[in-house]
Write a structure and sequence with these properties.
Elements lengths: L1 H5 L11 H15 L9 H5 L26 H4 L4 E16 L8 E19 L3 E16 L4 E17 L2 E17 L7 E17 L2 E19 L6 E19 L5 E20 L16 E22 L4 E18 L12 E18 L4 E17 L4 E18 L4 E13 L8 E13 L6 E14 L9 E14 L1
Antiparallel strand pairs: 1-2, 1-18, 2-3, 3-4, 4-5, 5-6, 6-7, 7-8, 8-9, 9-10, 10-11, 11-12, 12-13, 13-14, 14-15, 15-16, 16-17, 17-18
Amino acid sequence: MKSAWLAVVGLALLGAGAASAQYENFANTRQQQMEPGARPSIRLLGMGGLGLTVADEDNKISLLDFGSNLAGMLEDRDASSLECWGGRVHQLDDYVDPSVSASGRLSASADENLAGAEVVYRKPGHRALGVIALYDAQENSVTLGNDGKLSGPNGSVFWNEAVGRFSGAIRLGTWGDNQHLVTTDVFGIGNSSSGSVATLAASWKWHTWTVGGQLEWDRSLIHGVSADPGGFHDDEFNWNRPVTRLQLNLIRPESNRLAAGINLTSLRIDGSEDGRYSWSDRFASNPSRLNYLIYAPTFQEKVRNWGLEGRCRYALDRVFKLGAYASYQGLKYEIDADPSGNFPGSLLPQNTDTKDWKLGAGLGGTFLRERLRLGVEGYYEGEKVSSILTRATSDVKMRDLAVRAGAELLLPSRVSLRAGFQGGTLDEDTEQPYNFYKNSGFTVGLGYAPLGGIVRLDAALRILQQRPGYSGGGSDRKTWAQEMEAGARFLF
């Protein structure tokens, strides 16, 4: 369940430092949306978010869906296609902030609207050409904090060519956004971003397996402006953020009784920011309020991330299927500030080491001549975060247990009715009290797929709530989230 809550953009924006967190979070979000195979599985969302036991066209164990490798775009569909999707996520948080007052309740809201389209021409067995376009808009509001709006498009074009057992692909893309920030904090940073991405991907069929690799370069520039409400100064910041991603894939596709996949990923960021300072509250001492200007570096950013994940699905017979998942990720994140300390930038100095592991398993089945599908899955996730901040250190261990169950009934009219349940517990700090929460929620969905598979329409609604699992003390945080998604696919 933790992933459902963390996926809502703005969950980290619940304090006075919201501007910097938002500044960094949005940059990461924009880059992740550029990944191949990022289409949402609206059908499985309506079935409670199942991902292991029920086969779905947008969630296959394939080079594109599981491996996010562009060289699998050609074999993802057996015809040219047009796919469109859109959704909205709305979240409300109600909690106590002891730093404000012993009983002072605060609230925060986060909203995200996302729309996307993918047009692909396929010459089966030979070539795929296409365009992917996305538009994202986000809005966050925090009591006694900073309100922000972010919006912007991104798009890319790609070419995937197959020769015998070999498949290669190339992609070029660009993205941009603007932020409107209403801040009660002079250090709040309004920003705009722009970037470009280039991808090279390849795969090779080896017996019943597919071996793949992909290298991606993402070059982005984030331009920020910090101005006090009175308009006495406007400090400008330019954050260069080059990202390099490498991934290797080993996939045994769905056509076999055993389908399996392994992904090895690596990410490297070496970013830096410089500032142009006028007279500003950011100075340790201000020599003058008039005609004072200086350029200075603010921080160096270093990120190293690697991960290993595996997923498999095994058909016990014609009715039942077993699914399993395992992953491990390690992340090192360093921010080294200006040695003088006189010119703070958009991020504070820190050194963070994160280790995350996740295990999942489930059982699914088809009944009534494949008109009824049922599935149940369970997950365990653990995370350890060690941080060295400017004036403090912290070691936090988190633990997440979740269960998901779902059903789908296909009516003679080719309309599918879907429903699901999600529940679990989240311990945000296993060594501290008042951090234990219980999560629960339900999902419903509809689908329409006429015979022939040329057209498919899907819609889903998910409602989740999170409540404290303890008595007394703590923040007493209560969270409510609603997510709606709809999509259409046409083959021609």
